[in-house]
Design a protein that fits this description.
With about 375 residues, the protein is α/β, with parallel strands linked by helices. The protein has two domains: about 240 residues, Type I PLP-dependent aspartate aminotransferase-like (Major domain) (Aspartate Aminotransferase, domain 2, 3-Layer(aba) Sandwich); about 120 residues, Alpha-Beta Complex (Aspartate Aminotransferase, domain 1). Helix content is about 40%, strand content about 15%. The protein is built from 13 helices and twelve strands. It has a seven-stranded mixed sheet, sandwiched between helices. A three-stranded antiparallel sheet has the order 7-6-10, with no helix packed on it. The longest helix is centred in the last third of the chain and has 19 residues. The protein binds pyridoxal-5'-phosphate (PLP).
Amino acid sequence: MKKIPLVDLYAQYLSIKEEIDEAIANTIKNSSFIGGSVKEFENAFAEYANIPYVIACGNGTDSIEILLKAYGIKEGDEVIVPSCTWISTSEAVAGVGATPVFVDIEPNYFTIDVSLIENAITARTRAIIPVHLYGHPADMPAIMELSKEHGLIVIEDCAQAHGASIDGKKIGTFGHAASFSFYPGKNLGAYGDAGCMATADPAIAEKARMIAHHGQKGKHNHQIEGRNSRLDGIQAAILLAKLPHLEKWTEQRIEHAAFYYSLLKDSQVEIPKTKPGYRHVFHLYVVKVNERQNVRDKLLYAGIETAIHYPSPLPFLPCYASRGFKPEQFPVAVANQSHILSIPMYPELTKADQSVVARHLADKVLV
Ligand SMILES: *Cc1c(COP(=O)(O)O)cnc(C)c1O
């Protein structure tokens, strides 16, 4: 039976095999395992993201944590994060000793509900980390207005949203700084862990670079105790080879979303919405269904892989059990929880496969 995977990284490799093989071979030939293409990739990604300073690092979790550290956020501080995201967002806050304060998502777009942020602000609040979840931008204009009013730092978690924008302005350019992940399955993915920080603030850029490179300001000049969070040469070479394709891949994701829409709009499957003027880049295509387990089982039987992003809102994970959060505090996250389902979405997905997915999905839900 033909399988339809959630993502197919090998199909993408085959589509640019020569470029990738050459990038890897060159890195090995030059032994440029550290450094190498990193600077060139940083410059290329800065241009793509339209953010002046890009500092590559080991992964997207480090990049959030290093940025928080660069802004001096520490124990006793609070940082506002959405209730629904990958754990990196809150983990990084805890990583600098601060406390993540969870705010529920709004009902339509899975992103932080800006109308609830003000209530969560205390005298200890230092920053907000909005997440452009699944590829849909958070309401950055409203968040920046709030941040100005309350003097808060905004770090955009762009891990799932390379190339997304609001009224033509790219995400990552709204906040004081932005964090990107190049985890293999992300819209721009390396062949291992990778990430970067981005900001228009030269002082923060310098500090972030120092922290990620053992606190060095130039070789052996350790100004502070930093850490080691580097992008390695092979990953930089791969990312540099892939970046010129990113816009085309993004367009393909958007086209697939439009095709899913045409196939599913008259079914009882609730399809993802896009706020007017927003460019959703569909890192994930998350529908809502009833009787989710039955739907998943039926799709799996037909060879179609699905997933749940994520199986629990963050406040209800075991690691936050001691904080005693109640379901009533996060009604939207809780209401969505048993319905969300990620179906196959990747640039190389074919219309034929999408039709198969939609047929099985709609079929089941209408029963
Ligand atoms: C992937 C991801 C990150 C960072 O992940 P790494 O695996 O550390 O690169 C951060 N936030 C969100 C929302 C993510 O999806």
